[in-house]
Amino acid sequence: MVKEYENNDTALAEALGKPYAFIYRLSDVYRGKTPQDFVPDKELMEAHFFDGKEEIRFINADGVLRAVKLYEEADEKYLERKYDIDGDRRKLVVRHILGTDDDGQYYVRTLRMSGMEGGV
């Protein structure tokens, strides 16, 4: 399920409580434990803060920062994939959330980061 935040400060307060972060800036990419001093700036392209149940995502869309929460639904069907980062030293765990079309066929509705393995 997706919820759009009306207030980025509320989203940021919740995001800083998540254990993991992927932050994409024009000048660098950060991946690891959530930095408690994170402040969105003009270099920010995307930021993902997540745990096993939800992800809070900040997206810079044409200079406007938007925040959304993607959270687990009770009957959610998903495929979980693990992607190597930093060579094979660490893995990013991503859930591919499934939906069904009018014919009952499954498709990937959205993706949600859900964890990291191998040290942070």
Strand/helix succession: EHEEEEEEEE
Distance between the termini: 27 Å
Alpha-carbon Rg, integer? 15 Å
Q: Percent helix among the residues?
A: under 10%
**Helix-and-strand structural type:** mainly beta
User: How many structural domains are formed by the residues?
Assistant: 2
Strand content: over 45%
Beta strands, count? 9
Spatial order of strands in the largest sheet: 1-6-5-4-2-3
Q: How does the overall form come out from the CA principal axes?
A: globular
- Most strands sheet: 6 strands, antiparallel
Instruction: Note poorly predicted spans.
Output: none
What is the average per-residue confidence, as pLDDT, rounded to a whole number? Answer: 94
Helix count? 1
How would you summarize this macromolecular structure in one to three sentences?
By secondary structure, the chain is mostly beta strands. It has one helix at residues 8-15, and strands at 2-4, 20-25, 29-33, 44-50, 54-61, 64-71, 78-85, 90-100, 106-117. The two termini are 27 Å apart.
Explain what you see.
A 6-stranded antiparallel β-sheet has the order 1-6-5-4-2-3, with helices on one face. The protein has a 3-stranded antiparallel β-sheet with strand order 7-8-9, with no helix packed on it. It has 2 domains: 2-71, no CATH class; 78-117, no CATH class. The chain has 120 residues and is mainly β. A hairpin with a 3-residue loop joins strand 4 and strand 5. It is 7% helix and 57% strand.
